[in-house]
Each structure stands twice: as structure tokens, then as C-alpha cells.
Amino acid sequence: MIKTGIVGISGYSGGILLEILLKHPQVRVTYVSANNTHGKVDTIWPQVAGYTNLTCEKFDVKKAAKHCDFIFLAVPHTIAMQVTPGLLKAGLRVIDLSGDYRLNSIQQYKKWYGAAHTDAKNIKKAVYGLPELYRENIKKANLIANPGCYPTAALLGLIPLTSTHATAIQSIIIDAKSGVTGAGRKAKLQLNFSEINENFKAYKVLNHQHVPEMELYLSKISKEKFTINFVPHLLPVNRGILETIYVQVNKCLPLKDIHKIYTRFYKTEPFVRILPLGQQPELNNVTKNNYCDIGLATDATNQLLVITSVIDNLMKGAAGQAVQNMNIMCGFDEKEGLH
Amino acid sequence: MIKTGIVGISGYSGGILLEILLKHPQVRVTYVSANNTHGKVDTIWPQVAGYTNLTCEKFDVKKAAKHCDFIFLAVPHTIAMQVTPGLLKAGLRVIDLSGDYRLNSIQQYKKWYGAAHTDAKNIKKAVYGLPELYRENIKKANLIANPGCYPTAALLGLIPLTSTHATAIQSIIIDAKSGVTGAGRKAKLQLNFSEINENFKAYKVLNHQHVPEMELYLSKISKEKFTINFVPHLLPVNRGILETIYVQVNKCLPLKDIHKIYTRFYKTEPFVRILPLGQQPELNNVTKNNYCDIGLATDATNQLLVITSVIDNLMKGAAGQAVQNMNIMCGFDEKEGLH
Amino acid sequence: MIKTGIVGISGYSGGILLEILLKHPQVRVTYVSANNTHGKVDTIWPQVAGYTNLTCEKFDVKKAAKHCDFIFLAVPHTIAMQVTPGLLKAGLRVIDLSGDYRLNSIQQYKKWYGAAHTDAKNIKKAVYGLPELYRENIKKANLIANPGCYPTAALLGLIPLTSTHATAIQSIIIDAKSGVTGAGRKAKLQLNFSEINENFKAYKVLNHQHVPEMELYLSKISKEKFTINFVPHLLPVNRGILETIYVQVNKCLPLKDIHKIYTRFYKTEPFVRILPLGQQPELNNVTKNNYCDIGLATDATNQLLVITSVIDNLMKGAAGQAVQNMNIMCGFDEKEGLH
Amino acid sequence: MIKTGIVGISGYSGGILLEILLKHPQVRVTYVSANNTHGKVDTIWPQVAGYTNLTCEKFDVKKAAKHCDFIFLAVPHTIAMQVTPGLLKAGLRVIDLSGDYRLNSIQQYKKWYGAAHTDAKNIKKAVYGLPELYRENIKKANLIANPGCYPTAALLGLIPLTSTHATAIQSIIIDAKSGVTGAGRKAKLQLNFSEINENFKAYKVLNHQHVPEMELYLSKISKEKFTINFVPHLLPVNRGILETIYVQVNKCLPLKDIHKIYTRFYKTEPFVRILPLGQQPELNNVTKNNYCDIGLATDATNQLLVITSVIDNLMKGAAGQAVQNMNIMCGFDEKEGLH
After folding, report:
1. What is the CA radius of gyration of chain D?
2. CB neighbourhood size of A1 (10 A)
3. CB contact under 8 A, B235 and C198
4. Given B189, B194, B238, which is nearest A238 (Cβ)?
5. Is residue D307 left, alpha or beta, with left meaning phi > 0 and alpha meaning psi from -120 to 50?
6. Distance (Å) from the C-alpha of residue A93 to the closest C-alpha of chain D?
7. What is the mean pLDDT of the segment spanning A141-164?
């Protein structure tokens, strides 16, 4: 039984983390904090009424260290790097759900997140928490950079191809569609129901801060430098990401062969499902669970591959993957608390 | 051709007013203002690109008076009563879409809107702009208190009954459901897509500020004092109000007779449709038009009458009704600009 | 470990039952059937891929009896009464989610469901599966009539009042709003996305087949005959029911006293939560769980009580409650598989 | 004043056509028919109550010819080619909203629509009704093949580029998202609210019957053969199409130059709006109007162009464009009835 805390309980990821951890048989939630929302946890999230008597308070590193072995940071970027060094120093293991420790470079961070990074030491040490790629490193890590939602779907969809056919790839275009919880939980006119409902649009066209994260790990794993053209859109649903990934290759890759590569690649993975040929993944099948479902198709020439990858942005794209990482770090069954 | 201005262009009602008036053949929109949103009108509301070159500025009574004969106030309550006296003094005719001039009494206003009323003179003079009841007064009015959305659906649904069977009525319960635009256009966490979508709840149970407005005009018209029990709910749709009205009466009122009373009452009304017996109104049929559709049913004893009344909260419940009032005041065809 | 089967796997209730039972630690799903949908279960419900290798076939009583101890019937009414006698005779325990065994009288059944009842013997013996009222009977039952979704929310919302103040009650009006899965899973133009989305309407006004079920058990428990005026509406959400219940009483019932009665009544119930005064329940808090949340309010005279009751129509309103009943019948922890 | 008829009034396009034509000042609707839906038009489409007394009947070519000068066919493909020859012979002008006359070749038709074409003569004569490309031919046409919804958004988004830089283009990928009315109005489980709502998926990946239509007219106009990779997705909204079009070119095309080309190309077009650089089009701005809004962006190398094109699938993608064609054919103002 480990003692865990959650910093940033009032956002969507924090709320889902709380739900999962309260029901996780090998975990006790012993500390929760938030910046502007205080009081009994079950008035903040009435869904968990009956599961906890915790009170949410302003973050205090000493209190956190006193009550926990393990901390999840579900705070906005720039906040995570302020509290992480103290938590690590106090001997806690940390999983950061923000973008603060993903890019491995303070220059890249500055460029894409528009702020100076204040923890150059740990950004180098953090392990990228995508279990399908870095399970062994995760086991021993003290600081996990939990992957972004878009990169999770993109990397899982691309890695089997890029790691086996890197030189054949000519271009990668990702057309992504995300549910609204992906934008966070904040008062903002553009997120109002009447602005989103019955509407649809692209945003940050070819200019999203998740692109360098995708390119970094795709290139690392595949030992080849890749450029990704990425256009996200805001979908009028609460949860879920679907990415339609278009890969142009310079030789004929028969669909059946590709399918075999993908199936083998994820054969023993508990949370990735390759669909039978002819089927397309849909949000419904991954809502509120930790799966990534992947579909495959090609054009007549077999030189354009269309990979469709879906996840729940709050589960495999955030809180679910964070718990999967914790399970690995603690030696629990990787699926514990996630079915 | 009259020259009209709109104060408060950035809200939903202001935006719809703008769309209607720009296409109205006997009107020119010559002035628009808003408090925090400035610049070209077609960047604020891209739908009207190509219809106007107007620029939105901060409200200025002199400029408004110089450019307009007629003003619509689509501002929050308490703001309307600040600008109305100056506009009237400058000789403009005013239609106020807020609650500031509806209650006829500064005491009631204080009680329900929580603010002192600063224009005691005009609150007495304002004409309640429900054409089906007050058409003759509207013709000559200089200041119209445009009805609230909930009272519009409630009064149109109840008046034929209360004005003919006042003493038989024992209780009135209104269970109302409103689309989200009814809450206005503002940054507010509770109005976020993910908080409203796939959700549903009651609010201000038996305690909504539209209740005294309903009771006032229902009692006036029917010459009998009525109490209304009113519970509103927030519906996950953009536009539309449906009110299910339960009226208990102390004698048997056969449904066919009731239906005849309603049909006759609205026989010549251009914007009220009584459905055939057996049919129920639905939001779809009134979305983006100015109709109020009404359905009727009774229980086996004919002593419980269920009246269902639907409108588009931004049309018959706000901007559409305001234009209907303007048409009446200016001697235009009452339907002009509204089909 | 008991062996259970599900008849009618292709509907929403059947699908949810399957999900719950596959993860239930004391149950093995050993048989599933459907009328028109056959093949591997995980192609019918891709969400459960990885959890089962079962194949769905046409119903066969012998096969069911051979493979199971326990059967859930998630079939349309009239079908349940055809298969139940055979299953009982074969020694299985049966939970029927349809309306076939709820009304206790073949005359009432004929009147409300429009079909002759063919199993007069068992309709008398069936136990009404609302654990909060009939837990002791459920323990020993061989045939459970699982309650309708609307009656579940209504009875839980009303029983504490009617069983303590029966004679004070003058009228009960229930304004109900249900998500679309409540209408079942079938090809029907009126259920198309574009017909429901951004729309809202009442249906079966004062004439729904769940009314006699509510009246029957309300009267039984409260030892007083009640009439219920019930108007359901179709809500553009997938899951959830909210009922706004208006009760007029002939004496002053202070809200605090009522709240105390409700809190005590459900003190030890695992799945009913009475909200603190001032709070209103919302669908979100019960989606995909088995809770019924209840809010209370009164008007100034304390003679009109407004009870708001929410459930997930597929959980506490169908599959969740069925599993709760199974847990009781088998002596399992009542919450097993339901959190 | 011309006399028009609509064949196929019960579908979404037929219904919208009816609404537009009933309010069009130079048109009288004198005949409507449908295959399975009969009776008073205002019981089929309650929105038009008060606008017409027409009765919908089974199609009869003699009756149609007797009552009309002009016919709109809003019927499924294969039906249109059965009735068109008779209507033309009777001297009527015909606008067909189905796919029957778009492909110019009975072989292509057979391949993509899976049925033998029975009117080889007229498929050659039909004019493709995209006014921005074929206005002069439309004026004199007797038979218009009204464009498909996806091709309308695609062609308007691509033509300025392909007709000026055909040889520079290396690949075209279109990622399309369509509202549910695009799938037609029919009872189908996959179109049920609960199957679409909160869900999202791709369908007919690289294999949609609108592809040959796009390729045909794109190649014709641009005098270069193009291949289009097209992946459509079903969006949980009622109306609207957004296509994100990715064009790879073999030279640097500065964004400002591209923007100038597009702005000039559509300078005098009443229904195409090129957005200022930096803005992205959204469904909201074209819902229920006849506009196509187009946004432009490029990557850092200026060799990947991202064109976003939005229309209302029932307006510019079907009924609105049909009326625009009628206006051109009859010499009316092209915008009549469409604002």
C-alpha cells in the first residue's frame, strides 16, 4: 500500500486521477491540493462522495512530503517545475502530467512554451513515461514526464512503422481531433458550450507545442530525424482524441505486411489494440478506459498509409497513463486500477 | 427607412438582433456599441461579413442620438437603466431587452435583482412588450420593456386559460428547460462545454427572478392574483426553451373546449401556433424563428391540464420579439425581417 | 464463482451488463445470446475486446441451462415471459430487465403493454427488485422483476415521504427527462442523431406504461393509494434520468425535517445519496455508476416539496441494479462489480 | 414568378429546399412528392406551418409536368435517373441533387455507385452546377447535376491553386469531417443519437464515391490530372462540413501570394469568403447560410499548404446551391432567397 498525493485536484486530469486512485487496491490517497479550490474533496468532485474524507488545501511541500511516498502533478506547465525539485529532494517519486519535463532541452522548452525553464537539472533526468517505449527506464525513474495527449496517440500510431521503415518515409501529416476536456478546466469564452456545440474548427495550425515532443521521441526511437505536420481541431465531445495519420512512403508496403508488423509490435502490450483490417477505431470504444485503438488502411498504390489512432485524452492521454506508470514504478500489475 | 442602433453587440441577443436588422428592408443599422469588444463588426460576428462596414465602439449617448432614431439595449440589467433616461431625453425610442423596466416597481426590482433602481420615473412608464397582450400600447410607446424569455413562453401558454377560467385554477407549476445561450455569453466555468454537455440539472429552484414578472402580468391580464411555482433547468442545446406547465383546476375542463379557447385566442396572431390535439411541440420547429408553439393535454379527470410551450429563447424570447415590437411601433408589417 | 448468462446482448442494457459481469470477481459469463446479432462478442462490443472469447448465438433454453446457474434477460417485453418459465423449470435463477413481471397482474399488463400475458403463474411470484424496499425478499427470490428506469428514480425519491406522510399528500406530479439510450437500441428515424440533437420534446404525456408500476409499489409500501401525473421528455444526452417531482401537501413540512427523514431513511443504503440542502443533483455525478442522488427543496409555505432524483438509466435504472440484485441473491458484497 | 416542384420532400435536402422556396419572392411551390411520406406538407415539416397548404403525394410525371416549370430532385441516386428523362421530355428544367448525373460517364457511375446507369444520353448533357466554375453553362442548361457536398468544399478550396500552379502540385490529401445530416434521413442503427453522440470515427477510408467527382472537375478545370486521397469522418453535429486539405508542392509558395490568388479568384463571387491570414473558418459561420469560407496556412518551408474549407452541407452543399443554380438559370438575382 503506497501513499500518494495529487497536486492540482480541480482540473479534469486531477479529478480523474483521484477517481482512479481512490479505487486502486494498492494505493491510499493521503494528500490533495489545489491552487484556488479548497474544502472537502467530495464537494469539489461529488462523484467521489463516500470514497474519501480528504480536504483539499493549498500546496505545501512539507505536508506533501510528510503524507506521501508518491506525487502526481496535475498542474499547468511552469507550475510543475517550481515544485518538482523540492519534492524530489524530499525523497518522493514524481509523475508530472504537464509539459515541463518532456522536451529534454531548456532551449526547446523556451521556444515552444514561451517561458524560461527553471529546473535544467531534472529536465535532463526525467524519463518519458510512454510505457510501450520506455518501460525499463520507467521502473527505476524518480521523475516521470507523462506524455502529452496528442503525442501519445501519434507515437503509438507511428512507432511500429518508423522503427522498421524509417528511410522509406517521405512525409507525415497528422490531422488530429480532440474533445474539449483537452483544453483544460477554466473559465474561457471560447470554451463555452454555445461556442463549441454544433461547431468545429482547426487551431494552432502547424504550430502546436506538442509537435517537438512527437518529433523528439519519434526520432530517438527510430534513429532517423522526422518532421511532423500537425493540425489539431476541437471536437464537440467531452473526451477522446482521434488522429488520422497520413504517411507517404517511397516503396510499396502491402497493407497485410504493415498489419502484421503492428500486431507483433504490440503483441504483449496490455493497452494497445490493433484492429482487424477493414475496421476503423472510434472514440466510444476507448472512452473512460486506458486503451489506444489503432486502425490501418492504404491506397491502391500502397504508398500512402492511413493510420487512425484513438485514445481517451484523460485516460491513456493523461491520468490513466500516469497510473500505468505508477504501477510499473511500484511493481504492481500494470493494469491495476485501470479496468 | 429608420436608423437603428444596438447597444451591447457582443452578447448573443445583440448578435442576433444585428443579423435580423441588417437584413430588415425598412431599417438601417447606423450605430453599434459594446463595453469591452471593439473593432469591425464583421470580426466580432463573422456571419455578417459582407453585410456591414460598421465599427463597434464604446457607448456614447451623443453619438447614438446623432446617428439613430431607435435604440435596442442588449446589455445586462442595471446597465440599461443607466443609459435609458439620456436616450429618451434625446428623443430616441428605446427597446430594452434586459430586466430593468419589466417589474413596474422599484421595490420588486430591488428584491429580485438585488440592486437599487435608479430610474423610478421610466419604470412606471415602460410598456411591457408582449404584442399578443399589449399591441395597442406598444404602438405608441417610447420605452419598451422586452419580456424575459421564460415569461414569454409561460404567459403565452397560460393567458388564454387564466383570462377565461381564473377562479377555477388551484395551482400552477412550471417546469422549464432552457438552452445554454439563455445564460448569456460570458467566460464562466459552469458554462464550459464539458460541464454542460451530457449533463442536466435544475437551478434557482422556486427562486428565479423571472417569477415576479410572470405573476405580475398574469395577474394583471387575468384580474386575479396568481402564484407560480417555477423550476428552471439547463438543457445541453444552444437555443430554445420548453416549458411544461401543470395547471390544476377545480372543475372538469374537457380538452376539446380548452383547445378551442386557445385556437380562438391566437387566431389572428402571426407568431403563435396552437398544435392539433395529440401533437407535442418541439424545439426544432421554433429554432431560429419567432414562433411560440403550444401543445395541450389533460389527464383522465380533465382537472390537470398540461400545457407545453416552446420558443427560441434568442428569437421570440429576446431579439425576435424586440424586432416584432419595433415593427409594431413603426407601423411596419409585424412579420417584416422575421421570416 | 457463479456461472451467468445474458439473453439479449445486443441492446444497451445487455452490453453494459456484459461489461460489468466480465469484470465482476465472483462471476463468470458462460453464455450469451441475441436474436439477430451473432458472432464473437468482441466484434459486437469492441470495448470488451481482450476480456472474453464468447460467441453470441440464438437463444436456446437447454444450452443456457447447461452453461449457467443464473440468467439475466435483457430482451424486449413479451419476449421475457416466453423464455422465463423454461429457465425457472431448469432450476436457474432469473433477473428480468423487461416490464413483463413488474405489474403483478395480467389485466394491468394487458392494459399498459397491449399484449396478453402468457405466464400468469410467475407474474404473481416475481419479486420487485428494488433493493432499498425489498432486500429481504430479493435474497430468496428465483425470479426478479428488475424495476423500470423511471420508477426507480421516482420511488427512491418519493418513498421516504409517502411512507411517513401518506395522508398529507394531495398531488404528485413528476416531470421526467431521460437520455436517449432509455429508448433502446434500434433503427428508428425518430432516434436519429439529427432528430434528437439540439431538440427537446415531451412524449406519452400522462400516458406512460411506467405509471402503473410507480403507483403499484408506492401504494403498496405506503399503504395508501396514490395517483401519479407523469410527463417524460427526451433529453439530448446518451445516459441519465432526472426527475423533478412536485408534491403538494396539506400541512407545513419544514425543509429541514424532510431532509432529516430522507437522510435517515437511506442512512445505510450503499447506492442512495441525499444531497446537502441547497445542492441540486446532476446527471454527471451518476453517469456510469449505480448511485441515485436526491435533492430537496420547498417553497415559502413549505407546502410544495420539490424532489429531484437522478440516476444513470443504464446503471441504477437497469444493468447496475440488476447486478446489485444478483449480489444480494448470491450473498456477495452488494457493491461488488459496481464501483 | 416560376412554378417549381420538389420530388423527395421527406429528406433533409428536400425539407430545406421547401423552406427556401416557400420564402423565395419569385417562386411558387406548386407540387411536392415523396415516396413513402404523404399528407399535408406542414405535418411532415411543422416548421413551414402557415406557409403552404400543399399536399405531398406519390410522384407522377404528368402531374408534375402539369403544375411546374421547374423541378428539383431531392431523391436518392438511381431514382433520379428514372424520372429525369420524362421530366425533360415534358419540357421542364431539372436540378438533380443526387449523384446520378455528375460523373459524365456511365462506366465511372457503375464503378462508384454500383448500379447500371439507365440514361446515358442525359449524363453527357448535364451541366455540373458549381456556379463559381460553370456559371455560363448553367444559365442555358436544362439539366443540372448539383454537386456533392464534399466536392463542393474541396473544389472551391482547391481550384484557385490547381488552376494556377497545377504542375507544382505533388500530392493532395483531404481530411473531411461532416455533420450527420450528410448521411441522409433514414432509420439506421449507426445513425442513432447514442451511436454518434460523444463519438467520432473515419469511414470509407480512401474509398468514397465523391472522389471521382472531385478528380474529374479538378482535372477538367486545371487541365492536369489529379489524384485525391480522401478520408471522411462523421462529426457529432447536425450540419456542416469542414475539410482540411493538405497540398504538397515542389517549390516555395509564399503564403501572402497564395492568399492574393485566392482573394482575386473569388473577388466577385457572392458566396465564397476568403478569410484574412491568421483566421480559421468554423462551421458556426456558415450554418444555415450559403457561404463557403476558406482559410489558408503554410508550413515554414512554404511547400505544404493547408487549406481549410467549410460549408453547410445542406446549403452550399445541397439545397442552397440548388437554389443558387435556379436563380442563375432563371435570370434572378443570384442571392435571392439565400440570405
Report:
1. 20
2. 8
3. no
4. B194
5. beta
6. 36
7. 98
Cell reading at B206: 422556486
Mean pLDDT, residues A325-332 taken together:
98
- The whole-angstrom separation of Cα D152 and Cα D174 is 13
Nearest chain C residue to D10, by CA? C189
What pLDDT is stored for residue D85 in this prediction?
A: 97
Q: Residue B294 in contact with residue B308, Cβ under 8 Å? A: yes
Of A179, A180, A189, the CB nearest to B186: A189
Q: Could you please report the per-residue DSSP string of B122-181?
A: HHHHPEE--HHHHHHHHHH-SEEEPPPHHHHHHHHHHHHHHHHHGGGEEEEEEEEEE-GG
The reply to whether residue C23 touches residue A288, judged by beta carbons under 8 angstroms, is: no
Cα nearest neighbour of A339 on chain C: C23
Nearest C-alpha neighbor of A184 from the set C320, B228, B195: B195
Per the annotation, the verdict on C252 as an active-site residue is: no
Which residues are bridge partners to C178 per DSSP? Answer: C234, C241
pLDDT at residue D37 tops 90: no
ipTM for the predicted complex comes to 0.96
Query: Beta strand B93-96 with A70-73: parallel, antiparallel or unpaired?
Result: unpaired
Write down the pLDDT at residue A35: 86
Contact check, Cβ <8 Å, B188/A185: no
CA Rg, chain A, in Å? 20
Nearest chain D residue to A283 by CA: give it. Answer: D199
CB B308 within 8 A of CB B295: yes
Chain D residues lying within 8 Å of A282, measured CB to CB = 199-201
Q: What is the mean pLDDT of residues C304-311?
A: 98
pLDDT single digits (tens) B94-121: 999 999 999 999 999 999 999 999 999 9
Confidence of residue D59 (pLDDT cuts 50, 70, 90): very high
The pTM score is 0.96
Which domains does chain B possess?
A: 2-146+318-330 (3.40.50.720), 150-311 (3.30.360.10)
Look at residue B43 in the predicted model and tell me its pLDDT. Answer: 86
Q: Can you tell me the distance from the alpha carbon of D220 to that of D74, in angstroms, rounded to the nearest whole number?
A: 26
